Amino acid sequence: MAQEPNTQGPKGPNQGPGGQRGGQQRGGRGGQRGQRGDRQDRGDGDELIDKLVGINRVAKVVKGGRHFGFAALVVVGDGRGRVGFGSGKAREVPEAIRKATETAKRKLIRVPLREGRTLHHDVQGRFGAGKVVVRAAPAGTGIIAGGPMRAVFETLGVQDVVAKSNGSPNPYNMIKATFDALQNLASPRAIAAKRGKKVSDIVGRRDGAQAVKDQAEAETA
Questions:
Q1: Radius of gyration in angstroms for the set of CA atoms belonging to the chain, rounded to a whole number
Q2: pLDDT tens digits for 162-204?
């Protein structure tokens, strides 16, 4: 009786499980890396919002041709008063964005917000040739800011603000000048602690001055 031909070949039985084993191991390691990245995003229990501000491509001319690289600028925040920025460089765009995001998460700062929607007072910031003016705004104003500054306020959680850049249009300078302004903010609680007074005294004085200003504007209108 004729024997059936071996369709798997001499190494057939070993190729299937070996290929599956290798695929499973590589897939498993890849899945573990992805899960580890998710844990880093939620390491402190907060959902972080990241926004890509810009990508810059650079080329290095060498003997064999040109080598391209990418630089990414990313802003990260939790939408409740914490924000940070970072930059990263790599040969590929996704890797540059990943590096920038990790740097931004390590440089988060906390900014005091008034009523959770705007700033406590007007402030100015400067870095190099970048100059920005940031002003608190009443409810319903929205975010009146351009480009990189808008990304900072959206990830920070500010809902009403008016900002203007009077210096360099370079996004790096604008971002750093904006963070300089945010770091100069002071909350009524901090001012009261410095002066040895109650928070109600500081807030009441500020509200009274605002009422006088509004009345004067109404009379001149």
A1: 27
A2: 999 998 999 999 999 999 999 998 877 777 777 777 767 767 6
Answer yes or no: is pLDDT of 16 > 50: no
3-class secondary structure, 152: helix
Residue 220: band (very low, low, confident or very high) from pLDDT cuts 50, 70, 90: low
What's the fold here for domain 49-110? Double Stranded RNA Binding Domain (3.30.160)
pTM: 0.67
- Tokens 């080329």, residue located: 59
Q: Which two tokens stand for residue 170?
A: 């370079």
Domain positions in the chain:
49-110, 188-221
Read off the DSSP letter of residue 124.
Answer: E
125: Cβ–Cβ under 8 A, 6 or more apart, which residues?
Answer: 131, 132, 134, 177, 178, 179, 180, 181, 182, 184
